[in-house]
Structure formats: C-alpha cells, structure tokens
Amino acid sequence: MSKILTQQYPNQDPMNALKELQDLHQNDKKKRYPNVPDHCLPNSKFTDTTANGLTKAIITWLTLNGCWATRINTTGRFLKGNTITDAVGRARVMKGAWIPGTTRNGTADIHAIINGRHVSIEVKIGRDRMSPAQHKTQEAIEQCGGVYIVARTFDEFLRWWNNFVLREKRDSQIMLNDKSKRL
Description:
This protein is of the alpha/beta class and 183 residues long. It has one domain: Trna Endonuclease, Chain: A, domain 1 (3-Layer(aba) Sandwich). The protein is built from four helices and nine strands; from the N terminus they run βααβββββββαβα. The strands form three sheets. A five-stranded mixed sheet has the order 1-9-8-7-2. It comes from Chryseosolibacter histidini. One of its GO terms (molecular function) is nucleic acid binding.
C-alpha cells in the first residue's frame, strides 16, 4: 500500500507539527536531566526545509515515540590522496580515490520499525523526485509486506504517523477479537 505524502493541508499550520516535536523533545530532556533547571536546558530546534533537517525531525519523532529508526547513507566516500616526499625533498600529492557505497541503489533515507512493521521513509524536499531505482525498491518492500512512504514535510509525515498508528491499533484490536471468538 503506497503512501506518497504530497497533499496540501490548507487549514493546518505546518509549524504546529514542528512545535509538537520540539515540545516532545524538550519534555524528554526534562525527564532525562531532572536535576537541571528548565531554563538551563538548550531549546530544541527542528526544521523541515532541508533534507537533513526533515530526516533529523522524523528520526527524533520516531525515537521519542518508542520506535527504532536509523538514517541510511547510500553515498560512497572519498579517500584523500597521500603526500609523498622523495629523497630530494619534493612533495608530491597522490591522486585520491572514490569508494562507492555498499548500500543498494534506491534504498530509502530512513529505515524504521513501527509497531513491529518495517517502514522505509524516503525524504524529498522541494522539486526532488524519486529515481527509477527508488520506485523499484518501493515496489519490492511493499510486495514483502513492508511500508514505504515519501515524506516532503514534517506535517505530512505526522499526519501519516497518526493514521498509521491508529490503523495498526484498530487492526490489532480486530485480530485480538477474532482470536478470542475462536477460543
């Protein structure tokens, strides 16, 4: 079941979602550091205007709500070239090398476990679009029973979260009722 979060919600203030996250994070800090006065705790700041900011906000939300989530880095890395000094004292810089990443092309930015289900979250900002490899990955995850979503703003992610958690809760309640009827 594909969930692409691109709808606009004209009656909602997107800053309320980020404010809710900031309040949740601030309350978590108060619990973790009970001996530190409130005015000494640094304010939590989140943004959803950049891919890094939105990714951080989503992972923080999931973690604070008892889920497991991690960021997946699909890029490779650059190894800087060495500087070699010959016998005469001349320094020469050797060429560096790019090492490709070992993660599959199309892997989502965030992998999470929510209520025991695998959820892949692809973060897209502005005009950014999914690649063909990402579409193939989405199909494969959904065929295996996982959930794949595309998040463009934190507000849209939070709306998906509320619907998903309520639906999962309802479905698990239905399953429990069915089991009790069979017994």
